[in-house]
Amino acid sequence: VRRSKLPSSINSAVCAAKGVAALVLSEPLNIYHATGFWPQTLAMGHLGSSLAVVPADPAAPVALVTPQFIHYFMDVGAPDLVQLWLHTAPGEDGEAGPPIYFAPSGDGEVDPFERAARGATDTQLAERPPLASAAQALRGALGDVPMGATLAADGFIPQALLGDGFAYVAAEPLLRRVRMIKSPAEIELMR
User: When you count CB atoms within 10 A of the terminal residue's CB, does the N or C end of the chain come out lower?
Assistant: First the structure.
């Protein structure tokens, strides 16, 4: 079960103090803290395959941007308090290409894990169809954040995907500040 580990009211206050509309996170540990999702492909050196968006607005959902195949292959299960934005590769018409799944086995038997993984992915795609690229999915995850707003990013990937339509500041100082403040739920877990 994924739950954001960044308390929304605290995050909101820290972001507001710096004029930041959202945190856009691309480092594995930061994605995990924001969403509860451990991006294994990032840990293997595939930077930019998954990102997290933590809006300053506490009413807006935390978002996870990831390829459709990664969701299918590694992340079976419905999200909890985290909005998923999946992307595939562009098709011939520039729209999102079809979802990618493993080919069925030669004997026609469907593995129980495969059935669950494909079912979870199909459910997600029925709720929100995939987009053609990580850039489109990231822009969708930003929701109502207007162009020109300031985003706190933890690396070069967010700016590489979004371009120069936003102002960027380093996310690490804000993340350190948020992590120092413990929510009542975190204090209870530590007890």
Answer: C
Which amino acid is located at 76 in the chain? V
The two tokens of residue 92 are 């011939």
**pTM for this predicted structure:** 0.84
Q: What DSSP designation does 66 have?
A: E
Question: Which residue bears the tokens 């206050």?
Answer: 13
Residues 141-188 pLDDT 10s: 999 999 999 999 999 999 999 999 999 999 999 998 887 776 666 677
Q: Alpha helices, DSSP H only, in the chain?
A: 8-18, 28-35, 40-43, 68-74, 112-127, 134-141, 157-162, 172-180, 184-190
Q: How far apart are CA 10 and CA 81, in angstroms?
A: 17
- The CA-atom distances, in angstroms, between 151 and each of 13, 57, 90, 160, 183 are 15, 13, 26, 13, 24
